[in-house]
Amino acid sequence: MFEPNQRVKVDLSGMTVKGVTFSQNVREALGTIVQQTSADPAVYLVELLFSFKGVKRVEVPAARIQRA
Questions:
Q1: Residues 67, 25, 16, 19: is their CA dihedral positive or negative?
Q2: What is the tens place of the pLDDT at every residue in 9-58?
Q3: Nearest Cα to Cα of residue 15 among 25, 7, 4, 6
Q4: Residue 15 lies in domain
Q5: What is the pLDDT of residues 41-50, one digit of tens each?
Q6: How many other CB atoms are there within 10 angstroms of residue 36's CB atom?
Q7: CA-to-CA distance for 11 and 5, rounded, in angstroms?
Q8: Structural domain tally of the chain?
């Protein structure tokens, strides 16, 4: 579905990653697909354009990812 180096928008609202909880307002964070980490369900490692409280890479379910 998504390929490495593809630009995407990710919905991080309500997710907690490495102790950082993203607010409901973080619905279109820009990033780049690094790799697929799970096939069923599909999950991707995404490198964010901006760091959020030290978090730069996040694993995101495919349902929360859109092409940029």
A1: positive
A2: 999 999 999 999 999 999 999 999 999 999 999 999 999 999 988 999 99
A3: 25
A4: 7-67
A5: 999 999 999 9
A6: 15
A7: 18
A8: 1
